[in-house]
Amino acid sequence: MSNEFTALTVLPDGIGPSAVLLEQARDNPLGSPYMVCGYVSGRVLRPTEWNDDLLAAHARQMSRLHTPAFDRCGDIEAPPEERATHLSLTRLFTTGLTWWSETHPHVVDDPEVSRLLPRVEAFVAAAEPAFRRLERFTLIHGDLVVPNILVDDAGTPRYVDWEWAEIGDPAQDLAYIGGCVPAPPWYVPLDRTRIRRLLENYLRHSPDPWGETLGSLETRRDAWEVYERFFSSLHFRTRRNTPEDRQTGLYTHAVAQLTAGLRDRLAPS
Predict the structure, then answer these.
(1) pTM for the complete prediction?
(2) If you classify domain 41-265 with CATH, what class do you get?
(3) pLDDT tens digits for 56-91?
(4) d(CA 168, CA 218)
(5) CA-CA distance, 215 to 254, in Å (whole number)?
């Protein structure tokens, strides 16, 4: 909650909620720590409602969010000297996989996961040179999936649920909205043409001097997409057969969609 509140204090106007009050002590009238933030108008749209105009507006909002630059990445509350000078997606992937192997070994040992894992690892590793060249970091939302974006009547997207905010790679925010591995209601199905258009709109409204290229941005976005969809598929596997899933089939369906999408995305060309 403290991390989320810190992120809200530095957001550009019109991006997300305003930071009002953070109470971390328990000896208060509510008897628990709490946070108060401003109201954000709008509604969550279905993935099928995300047309090109809305994606362009989303690109403009992200470019505003990502304008302030940092030369180190990491926890938003950490002193700058304690942040890292480089970001390695391979290292993040290894750390995440270790946690899953220790915490939910039955998920990682699932035959479908075991078959996907080498392809995911290879895809992430192939993108590592693009991450080594990354020297400019920004404040990122860290979880810009469809349900965390509210769109008002004028078609302006605003972002809520900032608990994963950090100083990181702007390509991560660009990857989470959707792509070639979709699973409604979280991700918008996007083909290569629409992905390229999203990135071009983003760069068109981004600060000129920071030297990002379309090719590098696309490589990192693609790697983040595969990374995030893989770990989301593991998470959704833990939600199968819950009361909600038995009623709606939401997580069982998501696992099937993400597994098939990753298999198609990572198939040898």
Answers:
(1) 0.96
(2) alpha beta
(3) 999 999 999 999 999 999 999 999 999 999 999 999
(4) 16
(5) 30
